[in-house]
């Protein structure tokens, strides 16, 4: 008898320890790494170095000064970004296109999407520019894993560069070091508006106005705030503005959106069939709760400036426990992503199955107002009745 008790207590301790290890070992949210400063701005990274759970998506938070230029560069992971403040002039060169260069002035709420290894550069305009970018690789580091134009060309033998560019060796002398990943050039004139035509173009590229709505078939810009109607709104709960491959056909493996959750608002219980979810806390505070396919219960808090990660298939929700609205950017590593919500799932199952599975009388289930359940649910005016059935 004594042995049995000891065994039970022992097992209990092991199971508690495992549970605790699970909670401590796997997080839903994490801080970004330390800020790295450069002459034209700064960058913070979030990848598997500090957030191993975010195994398939990484991100960076970039702050450009007025005239600060993210050096022309490219990288293998696709990129999806949201402008958080200021204005960013983004130029993308897409291979194999009649109109290879696409330039846009992006403002708060705009999103861009760059295909794998498409060369691009980003300039902070008068008020500078802050953006958060996500990449479909967990270990990616924007600074060390991107090839920059100057870093490349300073490695090429002068004779080969001269030959390649149909000029003399004297004309291709480059300083020994590449420039900074974020440089502060003499670019004030560019930030004022007009820009000289690129060497291969007959005229300067037409910069899109911030509030222009047109999204061409191949555009890599999404004016999320202006151009995309909220896909989900609920009075007193907030909105979700979402962009996916129905808007964006340019072939990157991302979709995403901006979510506002008002005080007490609940993002409905749901899961994503084909995509991991990466989050960035823009402001406010949200409780995050998820259960993985392996049944591991995870919880966390997504605060301003933090990254969050929900593995594909994990049932999850977000809840705003504060008295202030909370905003977050969300990115999925699939251009087409699909979601099943709890009401959408159980509302399509025979009542008898649910009654048997959940061990709840069918009459109680009929009181679940599944048809009116919201994707963003406002706080309930009266405290919800505690379900004591079963
Ligand atoms: C961006 O950098 C500027 C200049 O250092 C700073 O004043 C500003 O607070 C930064 N913005 C963010 C959102 O970090
Ligand atoms: C530039 O290209 C033309 C045409 O192929 C060639 O004749 C000329 O020698 C080249 N000049 C240099 C400096 O390489
Ligand atoms: C993007 O998705 C396509 C189709 O699923 C896949 O073949 C391709 O490898 C993906 N590319 C990247 C960079 O993840
Ligand atoms: C939170 O972020 C949203 C979206 O960027 C912005 O509209 C709102 O003003 C911000 N709220 C605060 C308190 O900063
Ligand atoms: C997460 O779960 C633990 C253990 O159940 C609990 O103590 C903690 O308060 C929860 N945290 C949040 C943010 O919900």
UniProtKB/TrEMBL annotation:
> Which InterPro entries does UniProt cross-reference here?
Cupin_1, GPI/OXD, RmlC-like_jellyroll, RmlC_Cupin_sf
What would you give as a GO molecular function for this chain, any one?
metal ion binding
Keyword check for Metal-binding, yes or no: yes
Q: Which residues form a coiled coil?
A: none
- Keywords of this entry: Metal-binding, Signal
Check the UniProt entry and state the signal peptide residues, or none.
1-25
The answer to whether keyword Signal applies is yes
* Domain Cupin type-1 positions: 32-173, 222-366
Q: Which Pfam families match?
A: Cupin_1
This one is known as: Cupin type-1 domain-containing protein
